[in-house]
Amino acid sequence: MFAHTSPFRPGPRFNKSSVIQLHPPTADTTQLVSAAAAGVQKIYESGYELAKAGVLLMDLCSGSSQQQSDLLFEAPRVQRDRTQLMKAMDRINARYGKATVHIASTGQTQPNDAAWRMKQEKRTPRYTTQLDEIPIARA
Predict the structure, then answer these.
(1) Alpha-carbon distance 22 to 57, whole Å?
(2) Sheet holding 15-17, edge to edge
(3) Domain map (residue ranges) of the chain
(4) Which strand (E) or helix (H) includes residue 19?
(5) pLDDT tens digit string along 83-133?
(6) Of the candidates 42, 36, 52, which has an alpha carbon nearest to the alpha carbon of residue 107?
(7) Which of 16, 44, 68, 126 has its CA 20 to 30 A from that of 38?
(8) Phi-psi region of 11 (alpha: psi -120 to 50; beta: other; left: phi over 0)
(9) Sign of the C-alpha dihedral computed for residues 56, 34, 2 and 25 taken in this order
(10) What is the pTM of this model?
């Protein structure tokens, strides 16, 4: 989790980040959102006009290759297995469109809510990964 003000805008400066480590590792969206919210609570200060904020996911690995136990940390709490719920959410979103089903605490009221969408006007073209973006020359 990180947030900072613009280095080009006059006024007070703000630049903070925090790392929330998940034990045990998880693919559960509800736990990821809770961790992000905890990160925001650790770094938030009112009175700043932020230019950028975001969440980075680090040390990603497949569920089949993760270590099952960790001797450096206390025993994990017993948690409900939400694998089927996450798979169902993924299937619904794949069938009916992105953000058809989402975690309520994300703050998104409509799937196409412009206030929560990334600005992508200056995004680099994806010629090598998106077939529909390959330029076509006509003579």
Answers:
(1) 11
(2) 15-17, 2-5, 50-54
(3) 1-58, 82-118
(4) none
(5) 888 889 889 989 988 778 877 766 565 655 666 666 777 788 888 888 888
(6) 36
(7) 68
(8) left
(9) negative
(10) 0.63
